[in-house]
Write a structure and sequence with these properties.
Serine Threonine Protein Phosphatase 5, Tetratricopeptide repeat, SusD-like_N, two-stranded antiparallel ribbon, globular
Length: 587
């Protein structure tokens, strides 16, 4: 296993013992100079950036949208959704975590060339380049999360965050204003370019010196030297491919209605950045055939090794477990779970019929008395509906009020509040029965390729219309056609509904947004998507009450958001400390 990763835990424990890197050393605390002759300690500084990546764990902020509710009133997203989101009560805060990560990355960038990575100067210089590239890429990533969570308007001006590009010490000026959103984005792009100049596209071992980049080969590096620094042991660290994907994510945010301005990133830029990543993945043919069920492709998951990614995954966490934590949280109660996340009827209605038509369309053949038949196959992959199956024995789950089980609508504290349970993300071969409990391996995607294809579809449709390509090898229509075909939609009729709207930019926009809603549900996208689209935030969460086989829609939970909540707040604690900071309007 990668020695860099093996050292992760010990470095984190070591660094967490330091109250502040700038306080006088006491007892066993370490100062920055300690890294110069101790590369493992220096690696711990940049590892602190990796462990702070927000996508390292599931947040389930979908429970504060029209896609899901929580069955626990103590859940932080329940409080957000029901009117208690505030500058001093913000479960979605990225300010503290991301600013702390950037501080560590700035330290690394400032000190990296003083570290004795190797006695061999060529190897030492390669390590310098890689570590700097990683730091620039990670800093761009944390800027993206800061802008997504805290960018916003003050009066009529769109602001980003303070730009801090040097390590902060006791003599630093902390009371600095927020840069404009555009200045923040330009800094992100500069960090991306710096990272791309230093990082390989991917980390792979090479077999001969001709594969070594010229600048290292000219300096005398051999294949073993190169593999030591840029070989497969470094997989899952920041790479050129990952940095390009982060740029596409940020560009989509900046081009979106809530963040766009006359001089900001254009839809064309976002589409072209996404296309660059898609082309690296083989174009449309690179869309993973089994990408819909990436979370339950058990053979693929169990066989992961040497930092390899499954075809659907661009970047992921390390393999975790075995554990059964996610299933314990979300399995229905008859399967010994707590049923935490309950998908809404709103989301269920967003899944089209298998023939491709929306359930509201006259040609859909939707039957309200038999609502789960002939639907988009993804519905049963992602959501447990009444009569659906789950768990290692394919147990039938009955959510009807009169089903006679604790899985039924509002039967016990852990029962569903909407008539549905989450199925996506869960390994169905986990058994929680106390007499035969087991655990399984899992990983968390940081970036899925499907997200990048959807970024392209959205941006390309806005830039060039449904059928335009902007010089790329595919259109928004082509991408959506491929995604829906993979899902099993319209296989008998050529997806007639998609064909009927392929010349209509507005209708295609709605389909693309809906496909994004379905493909990425429960992965933490919907909360931010609604905001960047400036969509309705207050659509009540609905459920279904089934009794005597009659399906009655019911309102489960109001969504209480003010118009200003298109943007998240700057933390109140920061405003109290630094008067140069301005709060987003309305907070």
């Amino acid at each position: 296993m990668n020695k860099y990763k093996l050292f992760l835990v010990s470095c984190i424990l070591l660094l967490s013992s330091c109250v502040d890197l700038f306080e006088p050393a006491i007892q066993n605390n370490r100062d920055v100079e300690s890294m110069y002759g101790e590369p493992r300690f220096a690696q711990g500084i940049i590892i602190n950036g990796y462990v702070r990546i927000p996508t390292n764990s599931w947040s389930f902020n979908d429970m504060a949208t029209d896609d899901a509710v929580s069955n626990s009133e103590t859940n932080p997203y329940f409080t957000v959704a029901t009117g208690q989101w505030a500058a001093d009560n913000n479960p979605l805060d990225q300010w503290t975590n991301s600013r702390a990560a950037i501080q560590y990355l700035n330290i690394m960038l400032d000190e990296v060339e003083r570290v004795s990575w190797s006695e061999d100067e060529v190897v030492r210089n390669m390590f310098n380049d890689r570590i700097k590239g990683e730091a620039y890429g990670l800093r761009a990533l944390f800027m993206f999360h800061l802008l997504q969570a805290h960018g916003g308007r003050v009066g009529g001006e769109l602001l980003g965050v303070p730009l801090v590009l040097e390590p902060e010490g006791t003599a630093s000026l902390f009371n600095i204003p927020r840069a404009t959103f555009e200045q923040s984005m330009q800094q992100l792009y500069e960090d991306v370019e710096s990272a791309l100049d230093l990082l390989p596209m991917d980390y792979n071992n090479i077999g001969n010196t001709q594969q070594i980049p010229e600048k290292y080969r000219a300096a005398g590096a051999d294949a073993d030297d190169y593999n030591r620094v840029f070989g497969q042991d470094a997989r899952q660290l920041m790479s050129g491919r990952i940095v390009r994907a982060i740029r596409a994510q940020a560009a989509l945010l900046a081009a979106s209605p809530a963040f766009s301005s006359s001089n900001s990133t254009r839809w064309e830029d976002a589409a072209n950045y996404a296309a660059e990543v898609i082309d690296l993945n083989g174009g449309l043919s690179g869309l993973a055939p089994n990408g819909v069920t990436w979370f339950t492709n058990t053979g693929e998951i169990n066989a992961i090794g040497s930092g390899i990614n499954p075809p659907e995954i661009l970047w992921r966490t390390d393999l975790q477990g075995p554990n059964n934590d996610l299933e314990s949280q979300h399995y229905p109660p008859t399967l010994f779970g707590n049923g935490l996340l309950n998908p809404t009827q709103n989301l269920v209605n967003a899944f089209p019929m298998a023939n491709g038509y929306p359930v509201t369309h006259p040609a859909s053949n939707y039957d309200q008395a038999d609502p789960y038949s002939n639907r988009d196959p993804r519905l049963r992959h992602f959501i447990i509906v009444n009569g659906g199956t789950a768990g290692p024995n394919n147990t039938v789950v009955r959510t009807a009020l009169d089903a006679g089980t604790i899985d039924g609508f509002n039967q016990v504290e852990t029962s569903t509040r909407t008539g549905y349970y989450m199925r996506k993300l869960l390994r169905q071969d986990v058994n929680l029965d106390p007499v035969s409990t087991n655990s399984q391996l899992r990983y968390k995607p940081r970036i899925r390729y499907t997200e990048i294809y959807l970024i392209y579809a959205e941006a390309a449709n806005e830039a060039w219309g449904p059928l335009g390509t902007g010089g790329n090898g595919y259109s928004a229509y082509d991408v959506i056609k491929a995604i829906r075909t993979r899902a099993g939609i319209g296989t008998d009729n050529g997806d007639a509904y998609l064909e009927s709207i392929k010349g209509d930019q507005t209708a295609m926009r709605e389909m693309i947004r809906n496909e994004r809603r379905l493909e990425l549900c429960f992965e933490g996208f919907r909360f931010w998507d609604l905001r960047r689209w400036m969509s309705n935030l207050t659509e009540p969460a609905q459920g279904v009450r089934i009794q005597n086989s009659v399906h009655q829609y019911v309102q489960v939970e109001n969504r209480v958001f003010g118009d200003h909540m298109i943007y998240g707040p700057i933390p109140l604690s920061e405003l109290l400390k630094f008067n140069a900071l301005q709060q987003n309007s309305g907070w």
